[in-house]
Amino acid sequence: MTVMTVGSEFRGGTAGREQAGAAAAQLALFAALWATTGLDAVGWLAGTVYAAGTWALLAAGLRRAGRRSLGPADHVTLARAVLVGGVTAMVAGGVAHGTPLLTGLTAVALALDAVDGKVARRTGTSSALGARFDMEVDAFLILVLSARLALTLGPWVLVIGAMRYAFVAAAWVLPWLNAPLPPSFARKTVAALQGVVLLAACSGLLPAGVSAALTVLALASLVWSFGRDVLWLWRHRPAPRSGSATGLAGAGGAAEDSRVLVSSGAGGRTS
Q1: Burial zone of 11 (CB within 10 Å; 0-12 exposed, 13-18 middle, 19+ buried)
Q2: What residue intervals traverse the membrane (predicted)?
């Protein structure tokens, strides 16, 4: 997982041009999908809305962070975001005969998820903004893959993609859920499992029964992971103080806004 760029080190003021380049690449990908798979108007619309929302949120994040340019790892995540846009367009457009291409785009996006973090660490360009950008791309890809697989296995698969967003909503009501969590290898493993299993199940290469069994396993591990972390957060929640709202716990180190979660995350989960 990436923990990307530090704003003060990038003074070129090129973020707008970089995002414009990514937008052009996104449109080029849509055009390629239209030429090869017959991407319809619904797919174009869904992909365009996704891209516009992504660029708008990233631009707002850059402004808040006082950033004028993206860093090395950010560019990797931006490329992943473009690929996720293609996956989104295909799923929304119901491109059934484009499954091999859908599988390929998803596989590359998941593979690059292991690259941006390494780039950030090697270049010493870690930041909360980069981590948030990376996690949001991860979470949305899982949501889209869940929607794709729900067409064949049933709506219950949507729980995998929706769980992270449900947790975010719950955290607005229960502030103690915002507290950071201690690092966990098990949490990272569960997070990685979701993408791999959904990719394998969506690829059409596995028998339906095997795909269903693996997806059930992934969902069960996700519920366990969420449940374990919610229990930890509950046990370590701050005691209510008279006349004031409950504060945020600080039980573990987390650089980013703890509301920002990955697909299998809770609280301050970063992977």
Answers
A1: exposed
A2: 20-36, 42-62, 197-227
Beta strands in 17-133 (DSSP E): none
User: How far apart, in Å, are the Cα atoms of 179 and each of 196, 209, 233?
Assistant: 28, 39, 7
What crossing angle do the helices spanning 15-37 and 41-65 adopt, rounded to 10°?
Answer: 170
Contact 220, 194 (CB under 8 A): no
Per-residue pLDDT tens over the stretch 128-168? 888 888 889 999 999 999 999 999 999 999 999 999 999 99
Of the candidates 23, 79, 80, the residue with the CA atom closest to the CA atom of residue 56: 23
pTM of the complete model: 0.81
Enumerate domains of the chain plus CATH numbers. Answer: 7-235 (1.20.120)
pLDDT of residue 222: 96
Quick check: 115 and 165 in contact, CB under 8 A? no
Torsion-angle region of 174 (φ positive above 0: left; ψ -120 to 50: alpha; else: beta)? beta
DSSP state letter for 127: -
